[in-house]
Model the fold of this input.
Amino acid sequence: MHFYPSQNKYNWIYFFTFLCLITGCGNNLRIEGYFPEPLVNKIPLKAGLILNDSYKNYKHDEIIPQQSSWSIDLGEANTQMIMNVLNGTFDEVRLIDSLPLDPLDYDLDIVLTPYLDKFEFEAPITGNNRYAEAWIQYVINLNDSNGVEITKWIISGYGKHEIGRTNKNLSMNNAVIVAMREVGATFATSINQQPDFISWLDKQNAL
Amino acid sequence: MPYKNYFILAYKGFTLLRLALLLLAFLIISGCGVTSRMEPYKATDIIIGEDDGVVILARKHHASHEAETSLINCISNSIGSGSDALQVYPSNEFENTLYPWFEPSTAPLDTDSLTNLLSNQEIQDRVKRTGVRFLIWIDGSTDRTASGGTISCAAGVGGAGCMGLAWWEDDSNYEATIWDLEELNSAGSIYADYLGRSFMPAIIIPIPLIARPQAEACRGISDQIKLFLTTPYGN
Done:
């Protein structure tokens, strides 16, 4: 039996339906993982955290031509990651709505607003691709309690996970988790080396 | 057709089958298999104590390859089982307990960085609570180094079948580096290279004769780690 897609316009539909059935056209993925509180010396500050809707509900949709479509929901993982990282880094963390501060939050020292700036991935396809890869970039705005910007910190993370015998969605999930944990690790271990943050902290201590 | 012709055809078919079986046996005996090289090096005469634990971690420094999760699990399970089982702390749990210090970008690359890391009392206490005395880094991967041959398959009204021969070589190249978290030094290393050659002859149906160098490497490294940690000179 031979198949010539060009002979009949419906053959293309049959062909792609068949292809979808055997490969799975759409990949819906909700990123799930574990983000421990970092084991670092806590900074003795009270931090406010603003989580915008774009951050809490971040979803990446991408159609890879001639392959498949991906819909990756990072919202819940984003929230978990930043909450746990900040809880381990600062003495106290409180969720707030926006700046300027509500009178009840005047005791806060610093306000952080994270944004997921860029997200890229390499989808595993059958063949020689052995790893699912993910690259993620966050921008974290640090403001003082008056809303004055201390710094805009760009942190990126890279993660990969072998495809092996696991399915490609699980490999992708694990690659994204590695990348997000990298971001958390960088934040927790390097915030004390951020020049703008250090000089702001020195000014606070001098007051 | 005279009966004589049927006998000739049957004889020819029997000869072909015998030849195929001979070829198969030859491949099994001579070709398909795993060759190995193991080089253990122990720098100290320290042996593992009764209450000491071990953790196996993959080196993940964003190189093009990293040790497979399946291999890490295999070594962990292998070391933690049998009559001479050692106490093995789960890799993921260790990384989570000590987060963020054993992530790809923050994990110590040498024993000086490890000493620096463990100079933090809180981190040292956390390590002590896990009971882990020896940290074993596994670096390397299994890669396809060569392949060749062809198999042709055809199907018709009367049936289907394949003919030909395909072969490939997988190289499992790993190095286990053993750190003593109490003495804060490198106790030694184990280098393992397993080369597996697989064949797939096809005579009507393809018959895969697959060598599994990664599984052999797991077994070899695990046995060597046990020996390394339980005997003064580890050989």
About this structure: Chain B has one domain: 32-230. Chain B is about 35% helix and 35% strand.
